[in-house]
Write a structure and sequence with these properties.
The chain has about 425 residues and is α/β, with parallel strands linked by helices. The protein is built from 20 helices and seven strands. The strands form two sheets. The chain has a five-stranded parallel sheet with strand order 2-3-4-1-5, sandwiched between helices. Helix 6 links the parallel strand 2 and strand 3.
Amino acid sequence: MDLFDEQRQKINQPLAVRMRPRNLAEFVGQQHIIGEGKLLRRAIESDRITSIILYGPPGCGKTALAQVIANTTNSYFERLNAVTSGVVEVRQFLQQAQDRKRFEAKKTILLIEEIHRFNKPQQDALLPDVEEGNISLIGTTTQNPFFTISSPILSRAQIFQLNPLNSQEIETILINSLKDKERGLGKYEVIMDKKALEHLIKISDGDARRALNALEIGVLTTPPKNGKIYFTLKVSEESIQQKSVVYDRDGDAHYDTISAFIKSMRGSAPDAALYWLAKMIYAGEDPRFIGRRILICAAEDVGNADPQALVVATAAFQALEFIGMPEAKIPLAQAVTYIASAPKSNAAYLGIEAAMKDVATEKTKEVPKPLRDTHYKGAKKLGYGIDYKYPHNFKDHFVQQKYIPDKNKTYYQPTNQGYEAKIKERLDKLRAME
């Protein structure tokens, strides 16, 4: 590649790539890991980077931080992408790193972007060279490394979690891009409307790449007036029309959001539950998955404190099947707010858990003979059904008899919450009669 080709390539790069920081002074955000005196900053400044995993959402600066390390280090720096690189390519690079260490006494830093895309054999191929110090591995990932990266690599690498950029940090990045005449949009005379800037910041949702892409397309496609480009709210809305919610059905966002959703319903926080419901619907989560979790919460966390909760949840699920989305969000919201607002009891859940544990760990109890099936010839000859007392033939439709060999075992212990208080009152009386 000659000089002109290299310059042409830089010009054709997206603004988000051109504006990547060249050093720590230009880096915006993530002060919790690269602020003055922080471990990662000290490692970069002293050129003593060990194997690290940079974990965070899109557009938060993982690749940018790796680029800063590449510009700062005296080590040989190589970049691989887990999506396009295979085991053969990785092994070839590792052999080169070994030779470089042996013959040149030079350290090698290997950046693997989207490292979670590597399968287990590909990750295992890295392990010996990470262990021997032939390479310092920098892996970037949007997925929880504890779920997607092998334990041996994790034990040999430090994990740094990057956060979504806040509004002020996104604004700083955008303003810097508008001022920078060498790499940014400084050669254009852009008049940025305040509301337009606020819209870019809000809809980018902490993703600097998304904000810069929207800024660039808005500037490049807006005809100038008297030599000036007026970046209005309308231009901003056209450039970044819909907020992109970070949500992967197989990743962290999926599990974290559904966890917050369930815990909000369990915690009697209907407003929070509605927010997490809205996030899942907006992100395209399977509504049947949401409906199933609502059903489970109604039974597990509300239970007999309000038996109607399960009825409402079931009706909402049926409505979902009948009418589909987007209208089904309404009965789903009704069920969510009902369950979140209802009195809570997990007594039924605790009861079945305790019973299941006994079945699994203790000697299996035999069914008492009076309770055994009698609907076949010869049952009575075996003594089955004899002495069974039919409760409806007795006062208050209750009679004392042995339903389980260990009569002292109590699984269901109703609470004083909601309707379950009435159940408790009745059971306490009946149990006192035994």
